[in-house]
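queue> pop job 88
queue> type: inverse folding (structure -> sequence)
queue> payload:
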């Protein structure tokens, strides 16, 4: 089974993760909204939320795995942003 076939099996859950990210990062500050879109549309394989969703489903979870997958993306993005700040990178 390919990665895309696996991703297709949980596409609804992954879309729900994206919705949670957008909801949690909704802000009047434009930079915060840009960060949310960067998390969602920034490219990459997004293996972290995929693995959390798959593990949640394997354990029979119904909703908490969506929040956990979003949380993992927040942590990952925070570490990337921190690295950019330390390196003096620009947006």
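queue> result:
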């Amino acid at each position: 089974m390919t990665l895309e076939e696996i991703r297709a099996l949980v596409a609804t859950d992954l879309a729900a993760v994206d919705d949670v990210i957008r909801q949690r990062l909704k802000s009047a500050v434009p930079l915060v909204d840009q960060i949310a879109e960067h998390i969602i549309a920034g490219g990459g394989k997004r293996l972290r939320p995929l693995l959390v969703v798959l593990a949640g489903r394997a354990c029979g979870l119904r909703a908490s795995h969506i929040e956990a997958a979003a949380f993992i993306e927040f942590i990952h993005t925070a570490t990337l942003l921190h690295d950019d700040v330390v390196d003096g990178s620009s947006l």
